[in-house]
Specification:
The chain is an alpha+beta fold. It is built from one helix and six strands; from the N terminus they run E-E-E-E-E-E-H. The strands form two sheets. A four-stranded antiparallel β-sheet has the order 2-1-3-4. The chain starts with a strand and ends with a helix.
């Protein structure tokens, strides 16, 4: 399986900037030069249109891919990604409570 590292271009469309092959459930992208600031990146797979958002900086990251849904995958290894995934968890909990409220009869 191939995974693709994407960034947003000037038109806010994702563009593939690197490709890796998953072997033994692991893959690696070359980091390139040192970054002055963290940047939003997306991970995609050759098997679908699903994308996973994460923040790429200078810290090594560990990505756990959920092959059924990249959106349900997780990234650890930087404070920016912890903030992002905490926000997503809070957002999902809020949406669940909203749905429960809307579906309740009062």
């Amino acid at each position: 399986m191939r995974v693709y590292l994407n960034k947003l271009n000037a038109a806010n469309s994702p563009v593939v900037i690197d490709t890796a092959i998953v072997m033994n459930e692991k893959f690696h992208f070359d980091k390139g030069e040192k970054k002055d600031f963290a940047e939003v990146r997306f991970l995609s797979m050759e098997t679908g249109n699903d994308r996973m958002i994460f923040i790429e900086g200078d810290e090594p990251l560990k990505i756990k891919i959920n092959q059924d849904s990249l959106w349900a995958s997780s990234v650890t290894g930087s404070k920016e990604n912890k903030i992002l995934y905490d926000f997503r968890a809070d957002q999902a909990a809020y949406q669940k409570r909203t749905n429960e409220f809307e579906n309740s009869s009062w």
